[in-house]
Amino acid sequence: MAIEHFDVLIVGAGISGIGAGYHLQANCPGKSYAILEGRARIGGTWDLFRYPGIRSDSDMYTLGYSFRPWTEAKAIADGPAILNYLDETARDHGIDRHIRFGHKVRHASWSTADARWTVDVEIDGQSARFTCGFLFMCSGYYNYAAGYTPDFAGRADFKGRIVHPQLWTDDIDYSGKHVVVIGSGATAVTLVPEMAKRAAHVTMLQRSPTYIVSRPAEDAIANGLRRVLPSKLAYGITRWKNVLLGMFFFRMARRKPAKVKAKLIALAKAELPGGYDVATHLTPRYNPWDQRVCLVPDGDLFASIREGKSSIVTDTIDRFTETGVKLASGEQIEADLIVTATGLDMQLLGGMTLDVDGAAVEPSQCLSYKAMMLSGVPNFATSFGYTNASWTLKADLTCEYVCRLLNHMDRTGTRQCTPTLDDPSVTDEDFLDFSSGYVQRARAKLPRQGSKLPWKVHQNYARDLMMLRYGKVDDGTMRFSNPAPQPAARTTGRLTPEPA
Asked: Where are the transmembrane segments (predicted)?
């Protein structure tokens, strides 16, 4: 079996992987690379999710790439528009020519003697193998095969259809039907107003409320700037405007949670008819930004409720029945279709396993270096976005840092870089300070963060910008070494025989 070698292998052709390809081409033009994508096309999340109304829960001026302006009128964009943006980016920069579709990465093994990764891949049920000098994981953070669904009692009794939004198919017909959407997160608040346009009625059934904020679908300032300024300049100004506003809001939520909570609830109350039970349905038990705040463009969910097309019920489920859902209160909600918008199944590294010189790597036993690398794991990075801002803000910075790291190794003639934890004063903490269910369910799978830099996870774009774009690469924690090349070392970009 011949093995193909690249300087860098990127795993995943979603928003992170396409960005990684661009940054490598722009900042490390001499490096060969390939993108291994397990699915049949690019897009990741934006190709996988097909449920009604699928849209971003961040503005496109920050969810978009730093290097490619978002020029559509809508700031809160729908899934097809985002997928088109990714398609155009990959095509215009020639990134699409580097993508290998249907390549599911199963295992990666690091050899210090060779200073390279050997990556085992499944292609149409057959095994294949690649090698690389640096492995960059851009595979997202959840299981693409299935979402999370609790084990509801009586599920088999229900005579209608039950579907998780992650597995939505085109044959699902909800016109004129009564629909129950279980959940209160970004997916649920997207589904409800969109399905209510054709359904007889849609009920959002939630165990507990979420903060829901109306935001204009179009950014008037951005659209105005674009009329008088070059698109790239207008985009850059809008991007920083939205970054700073987001950071200000998050900081206020942390410093004055009670005040911010009261304001958010007051804004929601103003969108609804007088006497609406805001205390029950729209007053969360947690503080703002302990979980993500849900955006509804132009208040579409609130409008749907005002018009009587949808409603919110706050209760726990006793069981499914033949005709709907029985609640703990004894109430019965009739349904023809039940949509379980109950969250994601968090999965690191796309389910891939790792070993370093034959020793298995458990990410949960590692500390996260600069929120992108694992302690003791050489020449390896993973793209993991922000919980309190757009994913791409952090993905862009991570790509820039990986390029700085590769260029530093070229300048110094080193072949291996390893984040090394040898400071006994560093204690470990949860990787994410976030109370969302999908995060809490995955705590045991996630790496840990440390009590101080560079092991601390900021969730702060400005601080990460200074650290990743301008901070020292050779910081004393990242250890550089130069294993002697072995006789069987492969030539970059060529097919070579597998060693015996």
From this structure: none
